[in-house]
Amino acid sequence: MARVVVDVLLKPEILDPQGKAVEGALGRLGLSGVSSVRQGKTFTIDVDGDLDDARLAQLHELASSLLSNPVIEDYSIREVTA
């Protein structure tokens, strides 16, 4: 079994109002020195068998068409140990 994590974040040029709200709240709660916060989403996917090139290509296709909006979001895929 392989575990894959897909992280999806807004592209840097896209405004992130939720991230800005969290950034402001962190300062009000006493955490100084925070220069930026970006919010995103994470998908953890467990797949049977090994993560070969074909399976990884499928995951990239799904990440770009289902899990993220390629117009405003970037994604990254990483394999993690379960």
Give the distance, in angstroms, between the N- and C-terminal Cα atoms: 8 Å
Low-pLDDT residue spans? none
What Rg, in angstroms, do the CA atoms define?
16 Å
CATH architecture: 2-Layer Sandwich
Biggest sheet statistics: 3 strands, antiparallel
Q: What would you say about this model in short?
A:
By secondary structure, this protein is α+β, with helices and mostly antiparallel strands. It has helices at 17-28, 53-67; strands at residues 2-10, 40-47, 73-80.
Can you offer a commentary on this structure?
There is one protein chain. Helix content is about 35%, strand content about 30%. It is of the alpha+beta class. Strands 2-1-3 form a 3-stranded antiparallel β-sheet, covered by helices on one side. The radius of gyration is 16 Å and the shape is elongated.
Topology:
Elements: E1 2-10, H1 17-28, E2 40-47, H2 53-67, E3 73-80
Brief descriptors of the model:
82 residues, 30% strand, 2 helices, alpha+beta, Mth169, Chain: A, three-stranded antiparallel β-sheet, 33% helix
